Amino acid sequence: MIGKIIKTTFWLVVLTPVLLFAYCKYQTIPPKDDWYFDNFSAHQDDFLFLVQELCRSDADIAIRVNREYKPSLGISEPSFVSVQKSLERIGADQVQKIEGCHIKLSIWSIGFAGEGDYKDYTRAPMVHDRVEVSSLDNLYEDYGPITEPSFYMRPIKKEWFITYDVWP
Question: What is the model's pTM?
Fold first, then answer.
C-alpha cells in the first residue's frame, strides 16, 4: 500500500510540471491576423489617441493595464487613465513607447522568462530587421522550426504592423 502511494506521488510530482509546461508552451494559440485587422479597424480612434498622447513626451514610456499611476512614467495622471482605457478597449495588456514614437501594444504572448512568442501591434516609422510576410497565422508551418530569434511583420496601415517575435 505504501509503495503504491509513493509511486503515485512520484508520478504526480514528475508529470505535473511536465504537463503544465507542455500545455503552456504548445496549447495557447494567438489570435488570427483577421482578428488583428478587425480590431484595428474597430478601435482606430484609440490607436490614434495613443500615438497623439504618448508621442508628446520625449521619455520612453511603459504602461500596463490595471497598474497604479506613478509620476515617473512621463505622462500626467489623467493621460495615464485615458491610455489605460484605450488599452482595455483594444485588448492590450501594456503599451511601450520608445525611440521617438515607436509604439508596441502587447496583445498575445506565450513562453517563460523572456523565451517565447509574441504577437503584437507595432507602430514604427521605420522598421528594421523584420521579415515581411503575407500571413502570421502559420509561421511554423510556413518556415519550419525557428531556432534563432526571428522577427516578422504584416502591414496594417501606413506605419502600423502586426508583429510576431520568436525568442526560442
Answer: 0.79
pLDDT in tens, 55-84: 998 889 999 998 888 877 888 899 999 999
Quickly count: other Cβ atoms within 10 Å of residue 57's Cβ: 15
Angle at 21 between CA 15 and CA 27, to 5 degrees: 115
Q: Using alpha carbons, select from 150, 115, 108, 105 the residue that is nearest to residue 132.
A: 150
